[in-house]
Design a protein that fits this description.
The protein is mainly α. It has 2 domains: about 80 residues, Rna Polymerase Sigma Factor, Chain: A (Orthogonal Bundle), CATH 1.10.1740; about 80 residues, Winged helix-like DNA-binding domain superfamily/Winged helix DNA-binding domain (Arc Repressor Mutant, subunit A, Orthogonal Bundle), CATH 1.10.10.10. It has 8 helices and no strands. Helix 1 runs antiparallel to helix 2 and helix 1 runs parallel beside helix 3.
Length: about 170
């Protein structure tokens, strides 16, 4: 893969990478850092990508490893609690997918709700909403059966909806 092809593929996914990292980490600055690191690693390894059509999945796997490492750093540093807030009339999926249209307070609250999920549920929902992956593709990325992915996603979304309504 040459430089121009890499840049073209990156332009197609950069917003999704950033959104996924923001919701995965809950910190805009850390999200920018891990996306930058993932892109640099991807660029360095671009010649190892056999199928350019797999670029999206490949770079998300790199990003997920970076996010996972950053979340390990967080384990001892952050405690997150949900503020009592409710956004009536909006679906959770719509809010999550349109983060750039929210106020800073809304983004903060949504991230807090998102962090109430366990790590695997966050990864699955993030890959689906921001990455646009199917349950089968997510299963390949995370090493799970697609039926397991659908089940975990459903449970995670139900938890998010319950927290959203309360």
């Amino acid at each position: 893969m040459d430089k121009e092809e890499f840049l073209k593929k990156y332009e197609e996914v950069y917003k999704d990478l950033y959104h996924y990292a923001c919701f995965s980490l809950g910190d805009v600055h850390d999200a920018e850092d891990v996306v930058s690191e993932a892109v640099m690693d991807a660029y360095k390894g671009k010649d190892g990508l056999k199928n350019p059509e797999a670029f999206r999945s490949w770079i998300f796997k790199i990003l997920e490893r970076k996010c996972k490492a950053k979340r390990k750093e967080y384990a001892t540093k952050k405690t997150i609690s949900i503020e009592e807030e409710n956004f009536e009339g909006q679906s959770l999926e719509k809010v999550l997918a349109n983060e750039e249209t929210m106020s800073e307070q809304e983004r903060h609250i949504i991230r807090q709700i998102f962090y109430e999920l366990d790590e695997e549920e966050r990864r699955i929902i993030g890959l689906h909403i921001f990455g646009g992956y199917t349950s089968k593709e997510i299963g390949k990325i995370l090493g799970l059966l697609d039926a397991t992915v659908r089940s975990k996603e459903h449970r995670g979304l139900m938890k998010l909806r319950d927290a959203w309504r309360n």
